[in-house]
Structure to design on (377 residues):
């Protein structure tokens, strides 16, 4: 395990590959941003929009996937108020046990701001069973839910005949997931190659006893469907020089976004602005930490280090303190949802823990072998 020489990105991130000299792809991209002509990029965006005009019988210019959170709220407002487009917002709805009141209010805020919203709601019991199966099989309850989340937007785009889709950040350049890189910095049509969508497809769902007509919301449209319907995903973050977790949170909060009020010790959410529509993502971030040696706090501090607003030394302190954070109440409510005993939950977590990066002591405490910012001891 090695760390980027600039930020705290470890080389254990899936689909990442460090540059010569020990620089992570995201820092390499960030350094090159200093030379970007943002006016030129804005012209590229305008030309792109002109090449995708609204056709006869098409009531919207584009589609934006939203949760009501910081990124989607900023995208919706910027695309409408800056670009003058009429977007259709598409939201994947969580079951009642999972969605937060805060999430409902944030989605309502977007509606009150004047947007048209289509809500897609997969069958709750299938959702619950898939979450359980995903956890028991991969120690990743969100494998199925993320597949539905990413699939819902292009599915609606195809059915509503709206070929232009705006997405937020480019995971290839802004996070380092290189398999998602497209033909250009803004081309998102290779999003299908991200680890969440390409890691085994839906065969595991069939093996668990589900049939095809139960799994429609979880199937990402084929390459052929994209080509036939001329679907184009565009990473809006590529065009915005101030795109970041904190900046998007501030921008959206001014426009009515409600953020978390829980403690960072329970959430690992340094600014209280991520995944606001549900809380169980906190579990998944904790488990990701035990699998790969990094979690939500690492992603936070890396952006701030690249922006020059946080020192690497302070980032190390924050990652050390909070990267594994997850409040017990979130674990309890999740286990109740998938009908799993908490002891079994921790048995699975310890079983999935990366033994190259952690060891488990006699009291079952999971302890890192590595030093943040340095690597394996």
């Amino acid at each position: 395990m090695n760390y980027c020489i600039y930020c705290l990105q470890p080389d254990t991130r899936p689909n990442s590959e460090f540059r010569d000299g020990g620089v992570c792809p995201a820092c390499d991209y960030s350094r090159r941003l200093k030379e970007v002509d943002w006016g030129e990029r804005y012209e590229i965006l305008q030309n792109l929009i002109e090449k995708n005009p609204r056709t006869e019988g098409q009531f919207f210019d584009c589609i934006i996937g939203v949760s009501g959170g910081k990124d989607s709220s900023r995208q919706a407002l910027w695309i409408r108020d800056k670009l003058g487009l009429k977007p259709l917002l598409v939201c994947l709805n969580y079951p009642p046990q999972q969605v937060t009141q805060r999430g409902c209010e944030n989605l309502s805020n977007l509606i009150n701001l004047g947007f048209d919203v289509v809500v897609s709601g997969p069958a709750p019991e299938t959702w619950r069973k898939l979450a359980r199966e995903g956890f028991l099989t991969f120690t990743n309850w969100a494998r199925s839910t993320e597949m539905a989340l990413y699939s819902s937007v292009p599915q609606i785009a195809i059915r509503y005949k709206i070929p232009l889709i705006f997405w937020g950040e480019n995971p290839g350049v802004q996070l380092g997931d290189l398999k998602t890189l497209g033909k250009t910095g803004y081309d998102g049509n290779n999003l299908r190659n991200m680890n969440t969508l390409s890691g085994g497809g839906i065969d595991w769902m069939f093996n668990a006893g589900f049939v095809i007509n139960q799994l429609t919301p979880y199937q990402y449209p084929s390459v052929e469907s994209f080509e036939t319907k001329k679907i184009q995903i565009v990473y809006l973050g590529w065009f915005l020089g101030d795109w970041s977790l904190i900046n998007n949170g501030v921008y959206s909060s001014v426009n009515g976004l409600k953020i978390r009020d829980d403690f960072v010790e329970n959430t690992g959410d340094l600014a209280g602005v991520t995944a606001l529509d549900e809380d169980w993502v906190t579990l998944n971030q904790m488990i990701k930490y035990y699998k790969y040696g990094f979690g939500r706090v690492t992603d936070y501090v890396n952006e701030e280090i690249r922006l020059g607003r946080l020192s690497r030394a302070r980032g190390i302190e924050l990652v050390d303190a909070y990267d594994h954070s997850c409040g017990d109440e979130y674990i309890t409510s999740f286990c109740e949802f998938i009908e799993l005993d908490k002891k079994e939950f921790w048995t699975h977590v310890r079983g999935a823990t990366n033994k190259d990066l952690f060891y488990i002591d006699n009291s079952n405490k999971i302890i890192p072998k590595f030093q943040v910012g340095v690597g394996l001891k």
Q: What stands out?
A: The chain has two domains: 35-239, 261-376. The chain has a mean pLDDT of 92. The two ends are 10 Å apart (CA to CA). The CA atoms of residues 44 and 50 lie 10 Å apart.
